[in-house]
C-alpha cells in the first residue's frame, strides 16, 4: 500500500505557537508510519519549502492556533498550492476567528449563544452587568478576556459569589480596568 504523503503544519507566529508545536509532536507520535509519510512544516520559517514541495504532498494536517494559522491565511495558501487539508476553508476559518461576528451569525442561525460584550481596544466604557451576571444576580463563575482574533484568553479568572471587591451596581468598570480587579477571592 502506498503511504499518504502528509504535511504536518504546526508552529507559526501566533502567541499560541508552543501549544501548536506540542500538539504536532503528539500527532506525529500516533500516525502509523506504515500508512503516512510525514513531513513537518513551520509557517514561521518553511512556507517557501512547503510551496516548493507541494507537488510531492497528498494532504496537509493543519495544527495551528490563532492568527496566521486557523484564521484562513494558511488555508488560502494551501488552496493556492492545491493541497487538500482538514477543517474549514478560508471563509469559515476567518469567520470563526472573529469571535464577535461568529457569535452574531450563530445567534442569527438560531443557536443558543451566551451573552458577550464586545469592547473596543483600550475601552473604558462600562461593561453591562447582564454580561457579567446570571439572571439570579450571581456573578458568572469564569470571566475570560479574549482578543478578537485569538481563541485563548489573555486573562482568565475564576471568581466566587458574591463578589467582595467589585462595586455592586448596574454597571461594572470598563473592560480595560476589569481584568486586574477580577481576581478577588474570599
Identify the notable features of this structure and list them briefly:
2 domains; Rossmann fold; alpha/beta; two-stranded antiparallel ribbon; 3-stranded parallel β-sheet; 186 residues; disordered C terminus; single chain; 7 helices
Helix residue percentage: 25-40%
What's the total number of strands? 7
The top-level CATH class of the largest domain is Alpha Beta
Distance N to C terminus? 62 Å
Shape: elongated
Average pLDDT rating: 76
As for the number of domains, it is 2
Helix count, DSSP H or I runs of 4 or more residues: 7
Description of the molecule:
The protein is α/β, with parallel strands linked by helices and 186 residues long. It has two domains: 4-97, Rossmann fold (3-Layer(aba) Sandwich); 98-186, no CATH class. The chain is 30% helix and 18% strand. The chain contains seven helices and seven strands. It has helices spanning 17-30, 47-52, 73-81, 90-97, 99-108, 129-132, 175-178; strands at 4-10, 36-41, 59-63, 126-128, 142-145, 155-158, 171-174. α1 links the parallel β1 and β2. It is elongated and about 50 Å long. The termini are far apart. Residues 134-145 and 152-186 have low confidence and may be disordered.
Amino acid at each position: 500500500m502506498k503511504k499518504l504523503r502528509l504535511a504536518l503544519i504546526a508552529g507559526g507566529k501566533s502567541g499560541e505557537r508552543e501549544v501548536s508545536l506540542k500538539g504536532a509532536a503528539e500527532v506525529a507520535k500516533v500516525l502509523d508510519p506504515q500508512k503516512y509519510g510525514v513531513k513537518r512544516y513551520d509557517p514561521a520559517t518553511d512556507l517557501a519549502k512547503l510551496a516548493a514541495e507541494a507537488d510531492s504532498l497528498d494532504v496537509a494536517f493543519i495544527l495551528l492556533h490563532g492568527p496566521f494559522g486557523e484564521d484562513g491565511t494558511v488555508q488560502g495558501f494551501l488552496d493556492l498550492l492545491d493541497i487538500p487539508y482538514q477543517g474549514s476553508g478560508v471563509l469559515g476559518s476567518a469567520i470563526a476567528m472573529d469571535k464577535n461576528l461568529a457569535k452574531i451569525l450563530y445567534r442569527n442561525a438560531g443557536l443558543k449563544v451566551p451573552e458577550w460584550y464586545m469592547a473596543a481596544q483600550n475601552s473604558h466604557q462600562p461593561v453591562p452587568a447582564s454580561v457579567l451576571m446570571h439572571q439570579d444576580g450571581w456573578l458568572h463563575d469564569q470571566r475570560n478576556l479574549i482578543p478578537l482574533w485569538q481563541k485563548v484568553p489573555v486573562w482568565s479568572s475564576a471568581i466566587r459569589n458574591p463578589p467582595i471587591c467589585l462595586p455592586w451596581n448596574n454597571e461594572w468598570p470598563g473592560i480595560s480596568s476589569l481584568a486586574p480587579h477580577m481576581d478577588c477571592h474570599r
